[in-house]
Structure formats: C-alpha cells, structure tokens
Amino acid sequence: GEDVEQSLFLSVREGDSSVINCTYTDSSSTYLYWYKQEPGAGLQLLTYIFSNMDMKQDQRLTVLLNKKDKHLSLRIADTQTGDSAIYFCAEKDNAGNMLTFGGGTRLMVKP
Amino acid sequence: ETGVTQTPRHLVMGMTNKKSLKCEQHLGHNAMYWYKQSAKKPLELMFVYNFKEQTENNSVPSRFSPECPNSSHLFLHLHTLQPEDSALYLCASSPENTEAFFGQGTRLTVV
User: Fold this and answer.
1) pLDDT digits (tens, 9 = 90+) for A12-54
2) What residues of chain A have any CB closer than 8 angstroms to a CB in chain B?
3) Per DSSP, which regions of chain A are E strands?
4) What's the CA angle centered on B40, arms B85 and A28, to 5 degrees?
5) Residue A45: closest CA among chain B residues belongs to which residue?
6) Could B104 and A41 be called an inter-chain contact, meaning their C-beta atoms sit closer than 8 Å?
7) Fewer beta carbons under 10 A from the terminal one: N or C of chain B?
8) CB contact, 8 Å: B106 with chain A?
9) What is the per-residue burial (b if ≥16 Cβ within 10 Å, else e) of B36-67?
10) Is the pLDDT score of B67 beyond 90?
11) Per residue in B8-17, pLDDT tens?
C-alpha cells in the first residue's frame, strides 16, 4: 500500500529557516498536504500543492515537490517559537478521498 | 477554528463503560472520517463515510462502532475498551477530493 515517510525530529534556532522533508510512494497522488499539530490540538491544514506543480509559496511557507523522486518539503522562513509543533505530510490519490499521513516531524524552535 | 467540532475534548472511561464520541460539521462536506492517533504511531484511519454511507473500515475492532445519522454528524460508540485504546481520536470532514478539515480531537484514556 501507499507509504509516507518523514524524519522524526528537527531542531532549529529562532530566526533560522526550517526544512521538513517527506517522501511518498504513491505515484498517483493528486494532492499533497502539510498539516500542523500543536500540543493537545487537532491537525490544522497549513498548505497543499497539486501534483502538477513543483513549488508553492504562501507567506513564510514554501512547498517544493519533486514528483520524479516523490519528495515533498516544507520550508518555514524566519522560524518562530510559535512554529514549534508536529508537522504531518499527507497525500491523497486519485482513487478516492482518503489521506495517507506520514508519522509526523516534531519541530523544536530554540530561542 | 476549522469548523469541525468534537465533543468531549477529554474522556476517561473504565473498561466496562459505554460512551460515545461526537463530531459535527456544518461545512456542507460529504465525507467524514475517524482517525486514531497514538503515541509513537502514525495517524491511523479508522472509518470513512461518504454521503452517510460507510465506505472504509480499516480492520477496526468491533468495540468501536461508528454511526453517521446525517451528513453533518458522526459518532463513535465505544464499549468494553482496552487500555491500549487510549489515544487521541480525531474526526475530519472534507468536500470531495480536497483537503480534510480536522476537529480538535477527543483525548481518550481507558483505565
């Protein structure tokens, strides 16, 4: 079945850029998403990219998609302590409307 | 605030109790989902409902029983749970073929 992989942990200093990476196996993915989960909360959609795009920018967030390598990344510019959370990537195939999630990357931002 | 509301936010129940989790959305979405988030495990899709019909049951034990009485409400009925069922239960909804919007989750502890 489909598989989505992420590294478990990332630590950066406040003001630096963060890059969270994700790989997936389903070549029929139509949309790829980044969700943020703060402690005790549900998942908040941050941004998404359609599979025929290779880049999307939304304020401090930049999503890069390498469809050939099935690699997705989320870059957060000028990372703030409020960005500390778990970030999940997810992919949706064109067969239905279900999401397959990665295991999440815990981002820690040090002052 | 995503427009998906889950109640209760926290629940502690004994193994012999029966309780229900509730999810509500008035976003006009056709699909609703239950996910389970345990420590050290990826998000697990439990059930999917499309237009009130269950379209996915990911080998979930029968002690979890979903109900979707209308397109705005989704329930998860719980009975004779085990301590390993303690987790964050997330409800989500989505319009067809786009991103999912998540509720805040119900933190369930089985004692």
Assistant:
1) 999 999 999 999 988 787 889 999 998 878 899 999 999 889 9
2) 4, 30-31, 33, 35, 40-45, 48, 88, 92, 96-99, 101-104
3) 4-6, 9-13, 18-24, 29-37, 43-50, 55-58, 61-66, 71-76, 85-93, 99-101, 105-110
4) 100
5) B101
6) yes
7) N
8) no
9) bbeeeebbbbbbbbbeeeeebeeebeeebebe
10) yes
11) 999 999 999 9
Q: Which residue has the tokens 């930049």?
A: A62
Check: CB of residue A33 under 8 Å from CB of residue A89.
yes
Residue keyed to tokens 């345990």: B38
Q: For residue A6, list chain B residues with Cβ-Cβ distance below 8 A.
A: none
Contacts of A61 (CB under 8 A, 6+ apart): A34, A46, A47, A74, A75, A76, A77
Residue A55 pLDDT exceeds 70: yes
- Lookup result for tokens 């390498």: A66
- Three-state DSSP at A83 gives helix
Place of tokens 């012999």: B16
